[in-house]
Amino acid sequence: MKLRILIPTEVLMDEDVNSIVAEGMEGSFCIKPGHIDYVSALVPGLLYFRPANQEATQYIAVDRGILVKHGPEVLVSVRNAVAGEDIGKLHHLVRDHFLSLDQWERKVRSAMAKLESDFLRRFMELS
After folding, report:
1. Which distant-in-sequence residues (6+ apart) come within 8 Å of 119 by Cβ?
2. Residue 37 to residues 2, 43, 58, 73: CA-CA distances in angstroms?
3. DSSP letters along 31-90, please?
4. pTM above 0.85, yes or no
5. Which residue from 22, 27, 78, 108 could staple onto 65, CB 3.0 to 4.6 Å apart?
């Protein structure tokens, strides 16, 4: 099977895999070659898979998203994802990644508030 993980800015992963385990709104599920076509809304959590040419399981922490299995392809589209081979290190990567996102979002909110207040002030000056 071909696994593709997409985030808004890039294709995070494009690999041949033997199995995929993910968590949807209905619970955890496993997809193996020959599985029927399937669609699931994913919840934040771990998606793990076994690459076709390796024995080691790889892990990806994912945000909400969607998984679509069609034929030999599995497409996963999520807003945020962090990949790692060691589940212990993945915890730290996720924490650091989401802390930096939180700081970035605060800066964006602050900039938007300034833009909105400037717009309102200028609009009031037109009156």
Report:
1. none
2. 13, 19, 23, 9
3. E-TTPPPEEEEEPSEEEEEEETT-SS-EEEEE-SEEEEEETTEEEEEES-EEEESSHHHH
4. no
5. 78
Q: What is the pLDDT of residues 4-24, one digit of tens each?
A: 999 988 998 899 999 999 999
* Amino acid identity at 119: F
Domain parsing of the chain, residue ranges:
1-85, 87-127
Distance CA 12, CA 44 (A): 17
Q: How many CB atoms lie within 10 A of CB 78?
A: 21
Neighbours of 57 (CB within 10 A): 13
The Cα–Cα gap between 63 and 46 comes to 9
Q: Determine how β-strand 65-70 pairs with β-strand 73-78.
A: antiparallel
List, for residues 22-43, the tens digit of each pLDDT value. Answer: 999 889 999 999 999 999 999 9
